[in-house]
Task: inverse folding
C-alpha cells in the first residue's frame, strides 16, 4: 500500500462545507444500510435444502460427522478454506488466510446459537498445522473426502461460506456465498473503505491520481512472498513446518 506523502489529496474546505457534504453522503449511507437490511430479510425467507447429516469430516479426534460440527448448537457457519496439498505455508492461499484470520471472537456467535468452523479442503494433519502456526483457535475440520458432496453444484477447491440449520438429527443448507460475499467475515476492508484512499484496488472508482497499488497481487495480501499475517508469527518464533518437506 502506498505511503507516498506527495499523493493527491481531497480539496480542503471549511468545516461547515465539509459537514454539508458529509450529511449528503450520510443519506446515501442510510439508504445502503436499509437496502442491506432488506436483503437480509429476503435471505431469511429463502427455502433450504437437506444435506446428509452423517457426511464424514475429520477433526482433532478423528472421524466425525457434519452434525457433530454443530457442537450441539442450532446453526453452523462453515468457511471452506482452499488448500494446496503438499505445499509449504508460504504458498497457501493468501485470501483464505486473510478472511479466516479475522474471525476470532466466537463467544457472541455461540451466545446466538451459532457455531463457526473452518472446513479445510486439504488433509487434516497437514492443514491443522497451519491453523496452529497462525494461532487461530477456531474449530478445524478436513472435508477433503467429502467436499464434492457438501459443495454439490459448486466448484470444489474454491473458497465458500456456507450456512446450515439443524433440526434434531437432520441438517439443512440455508445459504452460501463466495467471491466478495465472504467480505462478511472481514473488518479490514470495511475500515479501508472509510478512508480517503480506500482499498487502493484497480477496480475502485477513485479520483484521478489516487493510489491503486493495493491489489491482491501487489498489495497487502502478500508481503515478502507470503500471506502478510504469517510474518508476525515467524517473528514470534513459531514454526511454519506443515510436515510436507517443503
Result:
Amino acid at each position: 500500500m502506498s505511503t507516498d506523502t506527495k499523493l493527491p489529496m481531497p480539496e480542503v474546505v471549511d468545516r461547515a462545507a465539509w459537514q454539508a457534504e458529509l450529511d449528503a453522503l450520510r443519506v446515501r449511507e442510510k439508504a445502503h444500510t436499509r437496502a442491506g437490511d432488506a436483503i437480509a430479510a429476503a435471505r431469511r425467507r429463502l427455502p433450504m435444502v437437506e444435506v446428509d447429516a452423517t457426511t464424514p469430516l475429520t477433526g482433532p479426534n478423528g472421524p466425525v460427522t457434519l452434525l457433530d460440527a454443530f457442537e450441539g448448537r442450532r446453526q453452523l457457519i462453515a468457511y471452506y478454506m482452499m488448500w494446496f496439498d503438499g505445499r509449504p505455508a508460504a504458498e497457501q492461499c493468501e485470501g483464505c488466510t486473510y478472511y479466516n484470520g479475522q474471525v476470532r471472537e466466537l463467544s457472541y456467535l455461540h451466545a446466538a446459537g451459532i457455531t463457526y468452523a473452518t472446513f479445510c479442503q486439504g488433509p487434516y494433519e497437514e492443514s491443522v498445522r497451519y491453523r496452529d502456526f497462525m494461532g487461530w483457535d477456531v474449530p478445524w475440520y478436513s472435508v477433503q473426502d467429502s467436499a464434492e458432496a457438501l459443495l454439490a453444484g459448486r466448484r470444489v477447491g474454491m473458497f465458500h461460506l456456507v450456512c446450515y440449520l439443524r433440526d434434531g438429527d437432520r441438517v439443512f443448507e440455508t445459504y452460501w456465498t463466495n467471491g466478495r460475499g465472504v467480505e462478511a467475515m472481514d473488518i479490514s476492508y470495511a475500515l479501508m473503505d472509510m478512508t480517503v484512499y480506500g482499498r487502493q484496488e484497480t477496480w475502485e472508482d477513485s479520483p484521478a491520481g489516487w493510489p491503486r497499488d493495493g491489489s491482491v497481487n501487489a498489495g497487502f495480501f502478500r508481503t515478502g512472498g507470503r500471506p502478510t499475517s504469517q510474518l508476525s508469527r515467524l517473528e514470534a518464533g513459531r514454526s511454519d513446518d506443515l510436515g510436507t518437506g517443503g
Remarks:
- The mean pLDDT is 94.
- Helices lie at 15-44, 94-100, 107-111, 124-134, 147-150, 188-192, 230-235.
- The chain is about 30% helix and 20% strand.
- The first strand starts at residue 49 and ends at 51.
